[in-house]
Predict the structure.
Amino acid sequence: MCFKNLPIEFDAEGKPFLRAGVANPYGPTAATPRGAPAQLTAERIEELLKRNGYIKDLDFDPVTRVAGALAFHTVADFQGRKVLEARSMATLFRGYEVIMIGRDPRDAIFITSRACGVCGGVHSVTSAMAIEMAIGCVPPPLGVLIRNLALALEFLYDHPLHLHLLAGPDYSSAMVGPTNPSLLERARRTEAPHAEIHGFRTMGELMDDLNPLSGKLYLEALHMTRVAREAYVLICGKYPHPQTIVPGGMSSTITLTVMNEMFTRLAQFFDYSKKLATIWDDLTEFFYEANPAYKQVGARRANLIDSGIFDHHEAYDATYAGARAWGERRWATPGVVMDGQLVTTDLHALNIGVEEFVEHSYYEEWTGDGQRQHFPTDPVGNPLSPYHPWNKVTKPRPQGQNWKERYTWDTAPRWDRQAMEAGAYARLWNTAVAQKLPANPFIESTGTSLKLRLPQGALPELELEWKVPAVWNAFERNRARAYCTGFTALVALNNWLAAMDRLKLGDTRTSTPFEIPKRGEQRGVGFWGAGRGYLTHHLTLDRGAVANYQILTPSTWNASPSDRWQQPGPYEEAVLNTPLLEETDDPAKFKGIDILRAIRSFDPCMPCTTHIHSDAGVITREVNTCACGVDDEGG
Amino acid sequence: MIVAGVGYRNLRDHSVGVMVADRLLDHAWGQDVVVEDLSYNPIAVGQRLEDEPSESRFTRAVVVAAVERGNRSPGTVAVYRWDGVLPADEEVHRAVTEAVTGVIALDNTLVVTRHFGGLPDEVVVIEVEPAVQEFGEEFSEPVAGVIDQVCELTITMATDESAVARLPHAGLGGQVPMATRHHLT
């Protein structure tokens, strides 16, 4: 049984039902979820701040080197070198859900893409899938394969960007030198174990080339984003907002020339993946050996969720009823990991366990304390919470910031009432443990690891193995992201080969015609993923127009505030567990690098406006970019 | 020579750069002038500029955009030769972060492309102070009133060396004497 907090049980056929005798199964008075950590109360924090001079507010506003705007409030104990309070703030409402109401559903493919300036394509595809499910339209095999390729290429833009432009500088000599000089000195004396693959003789040399603007790894990452982007536009027309994604597949014309041009670019990621994995192996092990306390930086329970991605072209039927089957045949297995254990790979169970809460968010509650809901069940009769996205109504209520009450535009998504973490690493973890990968020559799921056989390039063929980690922290997030580059490249290779087989058979059809029904009510959900992990779009149509649209992104999960039980969101929990390891006792010189490593390891993707709160008020700089993680929802 | 617009489509006054580039596409330019919409990831813009063969690299860029500086009235047009002075590395790095995560704006386009060496030495900037930022195709009244002049000014800056020579050198935003609408008429 995968639910421990929601009163959901399963019958002998595995069909879920609500436990009998529970008067208000989703009500606000339900007991505190088992196994949950809690924030200190605002009163207790105030008391500590007043009584102890070494306890101080430490604010990051904005958190730099993340996509969009994130602010983070902490209270730190500089004597105990720990964090006592952590509050994550999404500072903008953009309201894609509100914009979508009343529109033709096809608009969603183009409008929701604008939620993100990095990964617009993932929103377009998720949107197309939600429409396909609602209207009953199944893409042809080549359409599925090309869609997989498009998104794999988008991730091959995204992974290097995270690793060496956003998070990587936290491990560069330019950053480590000022915060931990003894560590950098040690790095200069330490040989890099994988020098023969990545080319850096010492850890110090490697850290030098992670330096922003001048480091070779930084510049190489910029170049590789170009390679991925060039391949992507061959089939999507534009980056980051594709023009060829439609319900029922892709509108691209796929020829051997397009496939070959794509391959020459994809192949460059085989060697690059070898370098990335070994660089992050070496960095991770170096920090662990230098100081085992680094294993606590960004640590939290391994509670991970992923909606799965990359459909098998012979399995995907675009139906909700079939989602249990086609979900488990994906190249990245959907699933939920709770306290390090995989508890389900069933998309129905994953879906019905999701709820969103707004007790600490700038939204109004919409259920009347759990009493009102539009859909009591999902399309196959499984129970749904009033707080489920299909029942959710977005009701913004702007107001002042108050840690005790409301402090963010993000909501608090929970699965089985637990704070779950989304990321590319959840994709690896589920796939490694579930052992449900389609048969293929390049990727093997062993039950405890993923083996990645990367073909020869300038570097020889290499088998990488990502192992499910014993600890879960900032370093493991980044290491997994590095391995995910190789995983993504090999998923793309498998799909490229399958697409070539279709072309050889003369099958060039990439889409299926469709009509939007003008009568009745229909529902759909896109289960997909961003470079950063989990992504769903829940859609309700009424007489041909959008009646409700709800987006749940990885950063919605990760940046979430505390919930009604005072359970912190993932960023908050990770920061609360982070020791302050900088080599200074002077709070004035403190940079908060370990806190920033913890936050950046999640690859935050936040709203596109930076609001700088000052005594004079709120200064706003509108930049119109990535909205992931936004509005309660924003990639 | 490249004449470029930077901005967003369907964002009312912030579409000035895009709209000017669209209108000037059909102008009877000489063979050495290219008109493009450079409203995309500035890293990619830099890579596109670097792709020009060395013998035909652009020698001048005339860049048009709406920029909200906040210290001038809507519809104000500022024209200057950018002095090319870059901010501190930390700010350049911030501009790169914004570029790769989707920010399209004049300042980060110029800073990023200058830093990585794609931008011509001579850059003429034509800024228009917007009045509104919201979805839509129509300009506000103050901005609509200067669009024709901005197009003419762009043509002048692309074709008249002496006019360019008379422009002040200035840093990005606020560091230049403002030319107003009245100067243009």
The longest helix of chain B spans residues 147-159. Chain B has a mean pLDDT of 91. The radius of gyration of chain B is 15 Å. The longest strand of chain B covers residues 60-66.
